[in-house]
Each structure stands twice: as C-alpha cells, then as structure tokens.
Design brief:
Layout: E1 3-7, E2 16-20, E3 30-39, H1 42-49, E4 58-59, E5 63-71, E6 83-86, E7 97-101, E8 105-107, H2 114-134, E9 142-146, H3 151-162, E10 166-171, H4 174-182, E11 187-190, H5 200-207, E12 213-218, H6 225-230, E13 232-240, H7 253-258, E14 263-265, H8 269-272, H9 276-291, E15 299-304, H10 308-316, E16 323-327
Parallel strand pairs: 9-10, 9-12, 10-11, 12-13, 13-14, 15-16
Antiparallel strand pairs: 1-2, 1-4, 3-5, 3-7, 3-16, 5-6, 6-8
Helix pairs in contact: 2-3, 2-9
Bound molecules: NADP nicotinamide-adenine-dinucleotide phosphate.
NADP nicotinamide-adenine-dinucleotide phosphate binds near residues 123, 150, 153, 241 and 269.
Length: about 325
C-alpha cells in the first residue's frame, strides 16, 4: 500500500500524519512516480504552518527524485523506469509514490544521484533564478547572502563565488560560518540567534571599502530587511526571496529612492520556471553547473519520510546546514 504524509489542517509539525493512500492510475498528461528521495524546503514550513495559505487537507513537498512507474495517455518524452525529478507544484512530494503532471518533471542525467538531485533541484533552480535572472553576476562585485549555510544559501554562495563575485555571508553560528567559507564566501558575519542586525550594514560598508554591496540576497525577511537595505551600494538591489524570520515590512518607494536609488525585488522560483520550456532549460543549466562543480549537493541529514515532523522541527530550529532529505 502506498503511504503519504497528510496535513488535515495548518499547524505545528505534528499535524503531519503518516497515512495510507491508494494510488489511482495516472490521468492523461500525468506520470506515476515512485519517490526515492524527497527534499525538504522552508516553503514546506510556511505552507504547513499556514503562513502561505494552501487548501487543506494537504500533502506538502515540491522537490523529489524518483522513477517513473506508469504513464497516463498523451505523455511523450518519458519512459517507464526512467529517473526523474519533480521540481515544483502541485505539492505532494511527501509521498512514497504519486501522480504528477509530466510537463513539470525533469529527466535526471546519469551524473547525478537521486539523493543529490532531491537535495538540489528546487534549491538549485532558486539559485539559478538569483544568478541568471534577478542579477547577472559581475566579477569582483560584492554581494550579501543571508542564511549562507542554508539549503539555498550554500548553493548560491558557491555559484556566486565560482563566477568571481565576493560574497559576504551571514549565518548564526561559527560552524555555519565554516560551511559558508568552504563554499567560497569571502567574509562571513555571524549574528547568533536572537542577535541584532543593527551593526550589519556598518560591517558591510567597512568590508566593501565604504561602498556597500551591489545585491543583498535576503531570505530572512523581517529581522534583516532594514539592514539589507542599509548595506546596499547606490543603485543596489535587494532580492527579498524569503521570510524565515517573518514578513518583511512594506516598501516605501520614496524612501528606497532617497536611500540611494535602490531597487527591491521579490522573486519566486515558481514564476521563474512556470514556462515548461524554461523549466527544462534552467534544470539543464543546474545539472551542468553541478557537473562543472559550480554547485554541490549538501545533504545535512536523511530522515525517514514518516518522520517528516522531525525534519520540520530541525529546519525551524536553525540547526541544519544544506539540505534535509526525507527517505520513503
Ligand atoms: N523565492 C523563492 O522562490 C524561494 C525558493 C526557495 C527558497 N526560498 C526561501 O529561501 C530561504 C531558504 O530556504 P531553505 O529551504 O534553503 O532554508 P534554510 O536556508 O536551510 O533554512 C533557513 C535558514 O534561515 C536562517 N534564519 C535566520 N533567521 C531565522 C529565523 N528567525 N527562523 C528560522 N530561520 C532563520 C537560518 O540560518 P542561520 O541560523 O544561519 O541564520 C536557517 O537555517 C527560505 O526563506 C525560503 O522560503 C525562496
């Protein structure tokens, strides 16, 4: 019998329950996938807790690797037994097997294992959006990366550093600082849990010789937003792509102009890869970046799928570095 992790209503990690889930044949346009490794992402936490409203009952999960078990009518380009990854919605990756729209799947090359793919495809596409679409990296420029030892953070830091950008990382512990440095961060600033961001911009200005950073990649939101704006060079860009500490404040357009002709963007990977053609080309570039060593898969821990609540508690406690995997 197939199983999945079901949430009847939003709430604490305990709302996730291991349940039996009969699996119908795939509908037209769908592929049936048996998952081998499932990536946990902070967006799963937002959806589970109700911060990002979704219809309930719900099965969470955007990111998984697996094998095609069956194909619905009209599906071209995939074969039974082929290794694939799911990279975005609809949610439902927290399942042993499920049916998924075939045009939202990508084929896995032989060079990447299932676990590595589940650890980096969604996070890697997010980094791809940030380094390819949101801002084209310029060699020797300075950027700020918050949560630089997180799932997206380690991939983003390594990718930027590999193309010659000087990354100032922000993390909460010395151990995480070491992880960010290993991925190429030029300088890492440690702000412990509960610590203040008030001195961050002056440290950034000092490190950058007074100019500030060209881009601040801010996935932390409420706690770090003002410090990120203050850390920008004139005409700098705040890429506000997450809110792990809470919602960032509203932006006053006059204020960001007065602070130095700044720009603020709120990019989403779901928009980045909405077009199936872009999804395929972006995934190909992520796998090429992996093959070339521009990015790595960082697996912090593997947790049985039925213990998904433990994975969420770990992620929310800020004790992870890189990716958590759920193993069916
Ligand atoms: N816009 C998009 O399309 C998109 C796509 C993927 C992910 N994201 C966002 O990117 C961020 C990273 O996602 P991820 O899955 O890779 O998670 P993650 O970075 O592995 O985990 C979140 C990290 O945020 C830091 N953090 C700072 N303040 C925090 C707080 N008050 N509560 C919790 N964490 C806090 C922690 O690092 P320290 O302990 O080192 O501070 C923590 O480890 C999330 O905000 C996520 O929503 C956005």
């Amino acid at each position: 019998m197939n199983h999945r992790v079901l949430c009847q209503a939003p709430g604490a990690p305990e709302v996730m329950k291991w349940v039996e889930a009969p699996l119908p044949n795939p509908a037209p346009g769908e592929a049936q996938i048996r998952h081998t490794a499932i990536g946990v992402n902070y967006i799963d936490v937002y959806q589970r807790s109700g911060v990002y409203p979704i219809p309930f009952p719900a099965v969470l999960g955007f990111e998984a690797a697996g094998v095609v078990l069956a194909l619905g009518s009209g599906v071209a380009g995939f074969t039974v037994g082929q290794r694939v990854a799911c990279v975005d919605g609809p949610t439902g990756a927290y399942s042993e097997a499920r049916n998924h729209p075939a045009d939202r799947l990508v084929t896995l090359p032989d060079s990447i294992s299932d676990e590595a793919a589940a650890a980096l495809i969604f996070k890697g596409l997010t980094a791809h959006m940030l380094v390819r679409r949101v801002w084209q990296p310029v060699q020797d420029s300075w950027v700020l990366v918050h949560a630089a030892a997180g799932g997206v953070g380690l991939i983003l830091t390594r990718w930027l550093a590999a193309v010659g950008v000087h990354v100032i990382g922000v993390v909460s512990t010395e151990e995480k600082a070491g992880a960010a440095r290993s991925e190429g961060a030029h300088t890492v600033i440690t702000i412990p849990k509960g610590g203040s961001y008030k001195d961050l911009s002056s440290q950034v200005k000092r490190i950058t010789g007074g100019t500030g950073v060209r881009v601040a990649y801010d996935s932390v939101g409420r706690d770090s937003f003002e410090a990120s704006l203050d850390s920008l060079a004139t005409f700098g860009l705040l890429a506000s792509y997450g809110r792990s500490s809470g919602a960032p404040p509203a932006v006053d357009i006059t204020d960001i102009g007065r602070r130095g002709s700044l720009a603020v963007q709120r990019p989403s990977v779901l928009h980045h890869v909405a077009d199936p053609v872009v999804l395929q080309s972006a995934a190909k570039e992520v796998f090429e970046a992996y093959d070339q060593g521009l990015i790595k898969a960082h697996i912090y821990d593997r947790i049985p799928l039925r213990d998904a609540a433990r994975a969420h508690r770990l992620l929310e406690s800020r004790s992870t570095q890189g990716a958590l995997l759920l193993i069916p």
